[in-house]
Amino acid sequence: MIKAPENFIDADGVRQVFAEAKEGRRDFLRKAFVAAGAAGASAAAPRALATANPVDPQGGDPNILELPEHSRGLGQPVATDGYGKPSKYEANVQRRQSPGLTQTTQASVSFAPLQSLFGIVTPSGLHFERHHQGWWDIDPSKHRLMINGSDERLLKKPMVFTLDELMRLPSVSRFHFIECGANTGMEWGNVAVPTCQYSHGMLSCSEFTGVPLKLLFDMAGVDYKKARYVLGEGADGSSMTRTLPMELVESGEVLVAYGQNGEMLRPENGYPLRLVVPGVQGVSWVKYLRRIEVGDQPYGAKDEVLHYIDLMPDGRHRQYTSIQECKSVVTTPSGGQVLLDKGFYNITGLAWSGRGKIKRVDVSVDGGRNWRSARLETPVLSKCLTRFNLDWVWDGKPALIQSRAMDETGYVQPSYRQLRAVRGTRSIYHNNAIQTWLVQESGEVKNVQLAG
Ligand SMILES: Nc1nc2c(c(=O)[nH]1)N[C@H]1C(S)=C(S)[C@@H](COP(=O)(O)O)O[C@H]1N2
Ligand SMILES: [Mo]
Question: Where is the secretion signal located (predicted)?
Fold first, then answer.
């Protein structure tokens, strides 16, 4: 046991920190703590250190430091775990499936735990999964990528690449979000799921590394005047095939990627090769990519004729909706979480747009009557998740928390009423409406939709 020096850190010392803070955020924080204190709420305001034992905050005598074992003994050796894992205390942070959502667990989805993540990057082991016929761990030495034309006038020289050959070519690395077109699909009719993991978790963001598809097309001698469509094909049993317009490839943004967050793609995410199609719905990001064909018309593959289409109010099906429109969600406080007491909270969330950068995110705590602009954290990148934060003092009364994002084109994320006026209620895909979380007096947070 060590005796703490007199006035080791005193309450005045703590006050001093606040006194030194300039106007603005720090000042807001100070006022928030004072307000919370005056209201008798202490959960958000840390106990002054002088009255707490800094080593064991729950401990008895504030002047006696009882060192825990980890401060006295020898820790674990290096490389016990050749590939590191999260702390055992984080074991509840998992991607989860929704039992009964699909008939088999191979043709299914696991959702990313958005409520537990910070910043913009999704750790690869928590990236959402969407497989139509299960995932594979394909031997990269046997994998090939073929590039061909539907007819020889469209492409001069069909080519087959090994992974080694692709990895010798000039590469680029870029941060992008991927969102399944069906994300938030269960909410079209009414609120369907309790947490943002299930309502918005078919969304992830990684740094992808690979070769621009345009480079491979140039090598193969594509005639860009005639070949206006591109077909990507996967090597799994789902025969995943999607048509892309050639303009996307010509922009240089479409990648044949092998890297994800500094290492090779995970098997669940398409190892060893996948298409990265920034801004476009997930289904077009073909995994286990084995073939790319150029053609002079859309291919009308099963996954673009039967699935990923939108049933409009007039009874017609809208096809080839590919760009994921501007959208956002507050991840804390969000459904399933509990606010322990009134006082200060950091409202945080994610915003993204398939059309470019996020320009602004407004947050309401009263169901859309009043809005305040949130802080956008850097980096703010194109077709990438953007993190936003906003200071909030909860007064203990019911609150309706919403976020509304705007992208650099000026497009503003719609309310459910605005979205349904155009789209009706019979869609499954492409729901980018404003999400509402109800904070109840008990502190419990619920998924709700506002009438009208
Ligand atoms: N080969 C192949 N590619 C595929 C799929 C698939 O089942 N097989 N699923 C698609 C769908 S619908 C989505 S949303 C994304 C999901 O990518 P992820 O599993 O890496 O999150 O992959 C797309 N690419
Ligand atoms: Mo998807």
Answer: none
Task: Name residue 36's amino acid.
Answer: A
Give me ligand 1 centre to Cα 131, in Å: 5
Residue, of 371 and 10, whose pLDDT is higher = 371
Are 200 and 295 contained in the same domain? yes
Give the start-end residues of each E strand in 171-271: 172-179, 203-212, 229-234, 241-245, 255-260, 263-264
Mutate to test the pocket of ligand 1, among 180, 200, 307 (most ligand atoms within 8 A of CB): 180
Q: Whole-angstrom Cα distance, residue 296 to residue 227? A: 5
Same domain, 332 and 314: no
* Most ligand 1 atoms within 8 A of CB, residue of 101, 130, 204 to mutate: 130
pTM of the complete model: 0.89
Whether residues 338 and 406 share a domain: the answer is: yes
CA dihedral 334, 340, 346, 350 (to 10 degrees): -20
Q: Would you say residue 54 has pLDDT above 60?
A: no
Percent of the chain at pLDDT > 90 equals 76
> Cα of 269 to ligand 2 centre, how many Å?
12
pLDDT at site 306 = 84
pLDDT band at 101 (very low <50, low <70, confident <90, very high): confident
Domain of 53? 26-68
Cα dihedral 416/419/422/423 (nearest 10): -90
pLDDT of residue 43: 47
Mutate to test the pocket of ligand 1, among 105, 126, 240 (most ligand atoms within 8 A of CB): 240
Please say which residue of 301, 318, 335 terminates a domain: 318
* Under 8 Å between Cβ of 297 and 308: no
Residue 246 lies in a domain: yes
How many angstroms is it from 405 CA to the middle of ligand 2?
22
Separation of 206 CA from ligand 1 center, angstroms?
15
